[in-house]
TrEMBL record:
Residues 80-242 form the DUF3152 domain. This is DUF3152 domain-containing protein. Residues 1-20 form the signal peptide. Keywords: Signal. Residues 52-61 have a biased composition (Pro residues). It comes from Streptosporangium roseum (strain ATCC 12428 / DSM 43021 / JCM 3005 / KCTC 9067 / NCIMB 10171 / NRRL 2505 / NI 9100). Residues 31-98 are annotated as: Disordered.
Amino acid sequence: MWVLALSISASLLVGGSALLSGHLAPVPDGPVSLPDRPAPPTALLPEVSVTPTPPPEPTEAPDPEQSFLLANGRRQPQKMAVPKSAGGRYTVVSGGARPPAGRKGKVIRYLVEVERGLPFEAREFADEVHRILNDRRSWGFRFQRVERGPVKIRVSLSSPAMTDRRCHPLITFGTLSCWNDGRAVINAVRWNTGVRGYGRDVASYREYVINHEVGHGLGHGHEPCPGPGRRAPVMLQQTKSLYGCRPNAWPSPRR
């Protein structure tokens, strides 16, 4: 009996040694350090050469005055939005302007008035009228602008509605200017845009319409076109048509 027990114990000892020798791995007490795995290969992207877009070159803002130059180099006025009807009352431009010094001729007193509510600077309008009337190509008088007192002529910048009222009984259709009751009534629409016969040259048309209407105040009547292609008399109704003539803004263009 004792012999059999000892035999079994010896067998167990031999088996246990076999287990420890590698058939079953012992379990360590601490953390297990796993071997590093190689990283998967990275796909290679083709090289792309990117050229950065250069910033736009700075451009100068357009000169608003340059937008109003004709091919002949004459400076043109800027167009305004002119209402059909404005304030209905005139304001006399304050101050005055003497005629050019060193010139002979009769002095004619006049004043300038602008209807309230029009988009034009009253003093600029008055200065332009004074320049035109005292040009050597104009009527040959010395015009003095005043703001009060007796005057021979009133130059009145007017809306179309005011023009129709001040020109009555003459019919202006809201588009023409006129001389009536001591006033050269200048239609603000025509002052702003000119007429087809003058093309883009609004500055020259302004000279014409001042000389024409003031010419009536000096006693001049309308004149016809002297012939196709010839220079139009300033008293031709050039706002309506040139009637075959060439445009002309001055009573004495060769002076």
